[in-house]
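Example record

One chain of 313 residues, shown exactly as stored in the release files.
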Amino acid sequence: MCAEAESKLSETIEWFLDYLAVEKGASRHTLDAYHRDLMQAATLLRKAGKSDWSEYDSSDADALYAWLASRGASPTTVRRKLSSLRSFLRFLIREGVDTKGTLPEHSSARRPKRLPKALTHAEIEALLAAPDTTSPAGLRDRAMLETLYGCGLRVTECIGLAPSDVLPEQQVLRVLGKRSKVRLIPVPDGTLEWIERYRRDGRPRLVRPTSPAALFLNQRGGALSRSGVFRILQGYAKQAGIRKKFGPHTLRHTYAVHLVRAGADLRSVQELLGHESVATTEVYTFLDFETLRDKYVQAHPRAKGEQGSNQRK
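Predicted structure tokens for this chain:
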């Protein structure tokens, strides 16, 4: 139990470190500092009899405070370690892990304040057109990009797909999400066409006798890693001329943003994204306000700097 819990907690930390390295370009020094800070928090969590970060609550933050105090940690050290933990928790929340509490006096860790970074429709089209689909790897990448954007999957969900999870007759994907919860995601026609083309013409040329039962394989026939997918995504973003920050969450956020702007209700978006709590999805409600404000600025005389119809001539 202890070894299994330690492995699970450590694996989640490594996932976060991959994200920092690939998306944020964090240095080795920064990654080592995060690793030390988070492993200390993981040790305390395990001692509390918990095996998953989703079980984290305010009592664990209290335990961390007490432990740091007993070690005579300076205020600067305490602030840094808590900052590391808050960044980690924000990442987990964005990935749909609904923690039970947050750091005392730091409730902002429960929900990211920043609006999701979404691509425009033109940027999406340029990105999807970037892979060279005459090669097996290019076919895989086009199908993978289509799946991430067309179905709003987390990268971990995408690389966890098996060929049997594609249900073309029902036009859905069977996705294993957080806490081993299965959900069915509608697949757009275009996305399904590229998945089927990859399954027919690409995957058979990548598969090896030792290949796992994964839909998306690397060029050696093995399973794709999260960091490998991050690098693939960033390479195509650069090729497509996308200048804004582009990371593993970008296509998932873009999927949600485009749904909301097209009129999808929040509960439906929650189900499609696999969020345990609608509170995690509520960040997208701000998008409606952003759209409304843009329309106001374009249409209202006051917003355009005019004085309105009551101006005297």
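Notes: The chain has 13 helices and three strands.
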